[in-house]
Automatic annotation (TrEMBL):
Keywords: DNA-binding, Transcription, Transcription regulation. InterPro entries: ArsR-like_HTH, HTH_MarR-typ, Tscrpt_reg_MarR-type_CS, WH-like_DNA-bd_sf, WH_DNA-bd_sf. SUPFAM superfamilies: Winged helix' DNA-binding domain. This is HTH-type transcriptional regulator MgrA. It comes from Paraglaciecola mesophila. Pfam families: MarR.
Amino acid sequence: MKKYDELLVSLRRVIRAIDLYSKKLSKESGLTSPQLIVMQEIYNNDDVMVKDIATHINLSSATVTSILDRLEARGYVVRERSQIDKRKVGVRLTESGTNAFNNAPTLLQEHFINRFESLDEWEQTQLVSTMQRIAKMMDAEALDAAPLLQVGQIHTLNAAGETTAKPSSSADIAKQ
């Protein structure tokens, strides 16, 4: 097997592991990884603004708003206009949202982070550098990506600097 084949097989295994865990998470909790990440940000920063959530998890405000729409429809979050500055809208978890968040399984990236942090500093740096180079080789620098392991929609910047979304595969439109 050629070296590039070995690399592609390893990448495919990573993608497959993420996909399988995402399906397990959705089945067990009814939530997707992006929803849990957004809920985690709200849990840690009550009455947080959408823009702040987007900044902290490295997703566009439009993507976070879409996720919040789904969570709000399920009664997990509420948005409330600030009494001080009417232009600002804070987001907080409802009691039902807090329960759903607390009862959800651990996110896959938490397992990954624990293992990653147990590596020596030089190994961590080498892995980060290698993955950044792979992303560049795959022309993936402009993709909107949060620090979470989830298969789903790909967000890119068009010529006007606007975020556009397209599914990464037909099976991956996993109800952000």
